[in-house]
Amino acid sequence: MTTTDLNLFDAMYSKMNFLGQRQKVIAQNIANSDTPNYNALEIKEPDFKSVLGNTASRRMPLSGGSVGNTGLDVTNAAHMDMNGSKIGGDRGEQKERGARKTYEVSPSNNAVVIEEQLIQAGETMMDHNLMSNIHEKYLNMLRAATGQR
Amino acid sequence: MTELNQAMSLAAQGMKAQGTRMRVISENMANSETTAKTAGGDPYARQMVTFETLMNRKTDSTEVRVDDIIRDTSDFKMQYDPAHPAADDKGYVKMPNVNVLIEMMDMREAQRSYEANLGIIDMTRSMLNRTIDLLRA
Fold first, then answer.
1. Mutate which of B16, B54, B112, B120 to test chain A, going by most A C-beta atoms within 10 A?
2. Range of the structural domain that residue A136 is part of
3. What is the pTM of this model?
């Protein structure tokens, strides 16, 4: 048994993966905060229901959860679904990025608000801290259960 | 982890671009009184930095880089100073088209962007450290 066999760990890994990607996009936005014609990008947050559906059906094959239920999000006609080969991995690959409308567009047609991005970066960092704390606590719990502590 | 490392390098690129911008601003400030030596000659022309995005296919990210350093083509200021070696036959000297106030403001803006990038590096580093600390738990 590895830690990835536990639902909670799997969910935490996905979340941390997502937070890493989010941080990358925020860094990209801030680096381009003075580039003409650049629009701030944002990673689309996966909605809880579909993530839960994916995790639950993958972990409980007996409940009729076939591979068909663990589909990848198909948001474009060119995307492959899960009936072919398993592409890209099934966790934390939020490729979908929507450009958001901000309330401030500079004369050079740049729509990055640095304050907004920094707030997002702070949120991301806090979420990341939360996840690593939960990870630590949960690991300690497992250790206690196996009598190593 | 790789995403966080990419975030660090993206922020570093942003800092580099802003650093170049700062350099050009200081060139402008330093040369705000630089005139020609010959009569009627052109003085120092103000320079500006333009940024552009650079698609990095390997990491699927949009980096920033300095596109070009261009000259400000606006008119030079004319100053009456007949004794100056660069004075034309009417006694006017062409002074650089540098407005120190604008340069100061531009510098503030560059500083602000630079600090934002620095903040991202700080945050990302702390996230990376937390991730590494998981190994110690």
1. B120
2. 3-145
3. 0.76
Angstrom distances, CA of residue B79 to CA of B21, B34, B47, B99, B101: 29, 13, 21, 14, 19
What total of structural domains would you count in chain B?
1
**Residues whose CB falls within 8 Å of the CB of residue B130, separated by 6 or more in sequence, listed in order:** A128, A129, A132
Number of H helices, E strands in chain A: 3, 2
- Strand runs (DSSP E) across chain B, as ranges? 47-56, 61-71, 77-80, 92-95
Phi, psi angles (nearest 5°) of residue A85: -80, 160
Considering its fold, how many domains does chain A have in total? 1
Q: How far apart are CA B43 and CA A92, in angstroms?
A: 57
CA distance B49 to chain A (A): 10
d(CA B128, CA A6): 23
Residue numbers of the domain that contains B53: 2-133
Q: Looking at the partner chain, which of A17, A32, A135 has a beta carbon nearest the beta carbon of B134? A: A135
Query: pLDDT 10s per residue in chain A (149 long)?
Result: 666 677 888 888 888 889 999 999 999 999 999 898 888 888 877 776 766 666 555 544 444 444 444 555 666 667 765 555 444 444 444 554 555 566 778 888 888 888 889 999 999 999 999 999 998 998 888 889 998 76
* ipTM for the complex shown: 0.84
